[in-house]
Amino acid sequence: MHSAQVDPIHAGAIVRSPRAGAYNVVRVAVGGLLLIAAVLKAVEPSMPSLTSRLLVMSQIFLECSLAAWLLSGIAPHTGRFVALIVFAGFAGIVGWKLLSGEESCNCFGRLEVPPMYTLGLDVVVIVALALARRRA
User: Fold this and answer.
1) Which of 8, 45, 93, 118 has the fewest CB atoms within 10 Å, measured from its CB?
2) Amino acid 12: pLDDT
3) Which structural domain range is residue 52 located in?
4) In-domain check, residue 52
Protein backbone atom coordinates (compact mmCIF):
# COMPACT_ATOMS: atom_id res chain seq x y z
CA MET A 1 0.00 0.00 0.00
CA HIS A 2 1.34 3.41 -0.96
CA SER A 3 1.32 6.15 1.59
CA ALA A 4 0.68 9.78 0.75
CA GLN A 5 3.76 12.02 0.80
CA VAL A 6 4.13 15.78 0.75
CA ASP A 7 5.39 17.05 -2.61
CA PRO A 8 8.03 19.73 -1.93
CA ILE A 9 7.74 21.19 -5.44
CA HIS A 10 4.01 21.94 -5.29
CA ALA A 11 3.80 23.79 -1.95
CA GLY A 12 2.54 20.98 0.23
CA ALA A 13 0.43 19.18 -2.36
CA ILE A 14 -0.10 15.56 -1.49
CA VAL A 15 1.15 12.93 -3.91
CA ARG A 16 -1.53 10.25 -4.16
CA SER A 17 -1.08 6.58 -4.86
CA PRO A 18 -1.06 5.48 -8.53
CA ARG A 19 -4.52 4.00 -8.03
CA ALA A 20 -5.90 7.44 -7.05
CA GLY A 21 -4.39 8.82 -10.27
CA ALA A 22 -6.14 6.11 -12.29
CA TYR A 23 -9.42 6.96 -10.57
CA ASN A 24 -9.01 10.63 -11.48
CA VAL A 25 -8.36 9.77 -15.12
CA VAL A 26 -11.43 7.50 -15.23
CA ARG A 27 -13.77 9.99 -13.52
CA VAL A 28 -12.70 12.81 -15.86
CA ALA A 29 -12.99 10.58 -18.95
CA VAL A 30 -16.45 9.30 -17.93
CA GLY A 31 -17.59 12.82 -17.05
CA GLY A 32 -16.39 14.03 -20.45
CA LEU A 33 -18.15 11.17 -22.23
CA LEU A 34 -21.41 11.98 -20.46
CA LEU A 35 -21.11 15.66 -21.42
CA ILE A 36 -20.46 14.78 -25.06
CA ALA A 37 -23.49 12.48 -25.16
CA ALA A 38 -25.69 15.14 -23.52
CA VAL A 39 -24.54 17.89 -25.88
CA LEU A 40 -25.07 15.71 -28.95
CA LYS A 41 -28.59 14.90 -27.76
CA ALA A 42 -29.33 18.57 -27.05
CA VAL A 43 -27.92 19.89 -30.35
CA GLU A 44 -29.40 17.24 -32.63
CA PRO A 45 -32.47 15.91 -30.86
CA SER A 46 -34.47 13.16 -32.52
CA MET A 47 -37.71 13.29 -30.60
CA PRO A 48 -41.00 13.14 -32.46
CA SER A 49 -43.45 13.03 -29.53
CA LEU A 50 -43.87 14.97 -26.30
CA THR A 51 -43.12 11.83 -24.28
CA SER A 52 -39.90 11.34 -26.23
CA ARG A 53 -38.93 14.97 -25.69
CA LEU A 54 -39.47 14.72 -21.93
CA LEU A 55 -37.51 11.46 -21.77
CA VAL A 56 -34.58 12.88 -23.75
CA MET A 57 -34.59 16.11 -21.73
CA SER A 58 -34.52 14.05 -18.52
CA GLN A 59 -31.64 11.99 -19.85
CA ILE A 60 -29.71 15.12 -20.81
CA PHE A 61 -30.25 16.49 -17.29
CA LEU A 62 -29.12 13.18 -15.73
CA GLU A 63 -26.02 12.98 -17.90
CA CYS A 64 -25.03 16.62 -17.25
CA SER A 65 -25.62 16.26 -13.50
CA LEU A 66 -23.60 13.06 -13.22
CA ALA A 67 -20.85 14.54 -15.41
CA ALA A 68 -20.62 17.63 -13.18
CA TRP A 69 -20.51 15.41 -10.08
CA LEU A 70 -17.74 13.22 -11.45
CA LEU A 71 -15.72 16.16 -12.77
CA SER A 72 -16.02 18.01 -9.44
CA GLY A 73 -14.51 15.13 -7.49
CA ILE A 74 -17.01 15.69 -4.65
CA ALA A 75 -18.02 12.53 -2.74
CA PRO A 76 -15.95 10.30 -5.05
CA HIS A 77 -17.05 6.94 -3.63
CA THR A 78 -20.74 7.76 -3.95
CA GLY A 79 -20.25 9.33 -7.38
CA ARG A 80 -18.45 6.22 -8.59
CA PHE A 81 -21.23 4.00 -7.22
CA VAL A 82 -23.95 6.09 -8.90
CA ALA A 83 -22.00 6.10 -12.19
CA LEU A 84 -21.71 2.29 -12.01
CA ILE A 85 -25.48 1.99 -11.55
CA VAL A 86 -26.23 4.47 -14.35
CA PHE A 87 -23.89 2.75 -16.82
CA ALA A 88 -25.28 -0.66 -15.88
CA GLY A 89 -28.71 0.76 -16.72
CA PHE A 90 -27.38 2.18 -19.99
CA ALA A 91 -25.88 -1.23 -20.83
CA GLY A 92 -29.21 -2.94 -20.15
CA ILE A 93 -31.12 -0.52 -22.38
CA VAL A 94 -28.56 -0.73 -25.17
CA GLY A 95 -28.46 -4.53 -24.87
CA TRP A 96 -32.23 -4.60 -25.30
CA LYS A 97 -31.94 -2.35 -28.37
CA LEU A 98 -29.24 -4.63 -29.77
CA LEU A 99 -31.43 -7.71 -29.30
CA SER A 100 -34.37 -5.83 -30.84
CA GLY A 101 -32.34 -5.26 -34.00
CA GLU A 102 -32.25 -1.47 -33.84
CA GLU A 103 -29.59 0.12 -36.04
CA SER A 104 -28.73 2.92 -33.61
CA CYS A 105 -29.23 3.36 -29.88
CA ASN A 106 -29.69 7.16 -30.18
CA CYS A 107 -27.31 7.51 -27.24
CA PHE A 108 -25.45 10.29 -29.04
CA GLY A 109 -28.35 12.22 -30.56
CA ARG A 110 -28.60 11.83 -34.30
CA LEU A 111 -25.07 10.46 -34.53
CA GLU A 112 -25.78 6.87 -35.55
CA VAL A 113 -23.79 4.45 -33.42
CA PRO A 114 -24.65 0.74 -33.59
CA PRO A 115 -25.84 -0.63 -30.24
CA MET A 116 -23.06 -3.23 -30.28
CA TYR A 117 -20.42 -0.47 -30.11
CA THR A 118 -22.26 1.48 -27.44
CA LEU A 119 -22.74 -1.67 -25.36
CA GLY A 120 -19.00 -2.33 -25.62
CA LEU A 121 -18.30 1.24 -24.51
CA ASP A 122 -20.69 0.88 -21.56
CA VAL A 123 -18.96 -2.34 -20.47
CA VAL A 124 -15.52 -0.68 -20.72
CA VAL A 125 -16.76 2.22 -18.57
CA ILE A 126 -18.22 -0.19 -15.99
CA VAL A 127 -14.97 -2.16 -15.77
CA ALA A 128 -12.88 1.03 -15.58
CA LEU A 129 -15.06 2.44 -12.78
CA ALA A 130 -14.97 -0.88 -10.92
CA LEU A 131 -11.18 -1.21 -11.13
CA ALA A 132 -10.10 2.41 -10.61
CA ARG A 133 -11.22 2.84 -7.02
CA ARG A 134 -9.93 5.77 -5.06
CA ARG A 135 -8.28 4.87 -1.80
CA ALA A 136 -8.96 7.07 1.16
Assistant:
1) 8
2) 43
3) 5-131
4) yes
Q: Is position 40 within any domain?
A: yes
Distance CA 73, CA 70 (A): 5
Is the residue at 136 inside a domain? no
Per-residue pLDDT, averaged over 43-70, amounts to: 84
Quote the CA–CA distance of 52 and 81 in Å, as a whole number: 28
Q: Which residue has the higher pLDDT, 115 or 9?
A: 115
CA-CA distances (angstroms) from residue 50 to 17, 106, 114, 132? Answer: 49, 17, 25, 39
> Angle of helix 50-72 relative to helix 18-43, nearest 10 degrees?
150
Question: 69 vs 3, 36, 73, 129, CA distance in Å?
Answer: 26, 15, 7, 14
What three-state secondary structure class fits 13? strand
Q: What pTM does this model have?
A: 0.79
The tally of domains found in the chain comes to: 1
Interacting residues of 8 by C-beta distance below 8 A, sequence separation 6+: none
